[in-house]
Amino acid sequence: MTSEKEYYIYEDRGNVYEFAHKMIDAGADVLLGHGPHATRAVEVYKNRFITYSMGDFCTYSNISVVGLCGIAPLFQIYTNDKGEFQKAQIITTSQQKFQPPRYD
């Protein structure tokens, strides 16, 4: 993942870093992203927690869960009263086709 505009099959998907930063700048305390069927980076921006994609969790049908596509994190995020990030625990899960997620 780069910090530039993304394209998928000629479709402009925008810049997820720019979008996430604008959401924090607008007042969000925590941003939980998903969409590309793969786990992506996390970031602390202006003392606020961002995950760019939590991957797939409890996937069904024709979505691949092979290798990294089958891993999805659970987040336990701690903030102070102002919404500022304090700490997080990341719990990984994995899944196999037609099976519920399991702790990894």
Explain how this protein is built.
The chain has 104 residues and is mainly beta. It has one domain. Helix content is 10%, strand content 38%. It is built from one helix and eight strands; from the N terminus they run ββαββββββ. It has one helix spanning 16-25; strands at 6-8, 11-14, 30-32, 42-45, 48-51, 71-79, 85-94, 102-103. The strands form three sheets. The protein has a three-stranded mixed β-sheet, with helices on one face. It has a three-stranded antiparallel β-sheet with strand order 6-7-8, with no helix packed on it. A hairpin with a 2-residue loop joins strand 1 (6-8) and strand 2 (11-14). The longest helix has 10 residues, at 16-25. The protein is flat and about 40 Å long. It starts with 5 loop residues before the first strand and ends with a strand.
